[in-house]
Amino acid sequence: MRAMDIMTTQVITIGPDATVQELAALLSERAISGVPVIDSDNRLVGVATEGDLLHRTETGTEYPTGRRRSRWLESLASDRELARDYVKSHGRKVSDIMTRGVVTVSEETELADIANLLETGRIKRVPVLRDGQVIGIVSRANLVRALSAAPRVPASEGDDDRSMRAKLLAELSGQEWARLWAADIIVRDKVVHLWFSSDQPAEERHAMRVAAENLGGVRRVEQHLVPAPVLPAF
Fold it and tell me: Where are the beta strands (DSSP E) in 96-228?
């Protein structure tokens, strides 16, 4: 799936010359946490979010003059950072407080790439652009809804125990964390049996169970623990 398949197309935007109070009212009235900022040519120039409104002089939440955060960070704070903080808390226009270096995607961007952008950038949404203009928004909520609508992969026609086992082995062979011998996997009547050493990390056992559960048509997964071999002392 791509951005065009799940994006919100009715995009609420605001102009850079709008006041901070107008931005706050818009976010509150529409129950949204952020909006793209577009100029008179409908070009994206930034993004304004709730986070940009957290520290405001009007509400008495501006950054302390001495500097926020812990002591060791205070010593690292530059005059440039302090100046930015002042603008964030005292700026009157959206253009003063918005984020300018905006991460964007195209309508053809794959959802896996968008998910990575949201995670690595620690952001909640990305504008979708076409020729520099905003045509949509993909948010974390859009990705969650796409997941809820995704059907469970059905069993392939003719999938028997042998082919299911082969698919699981192929899947695990490409995973660096998977430490399991082929002999430790048995599929019988579409029930996957996995044998683990008792000293095998729980995270690995969990991941292998998930891989088995994702096989089309699997009825259930059963895990079996065997004692870890005892090495002789020298």
Answer: 105-106, 125-130, 133-139, 185-188, 191-197, 220-226
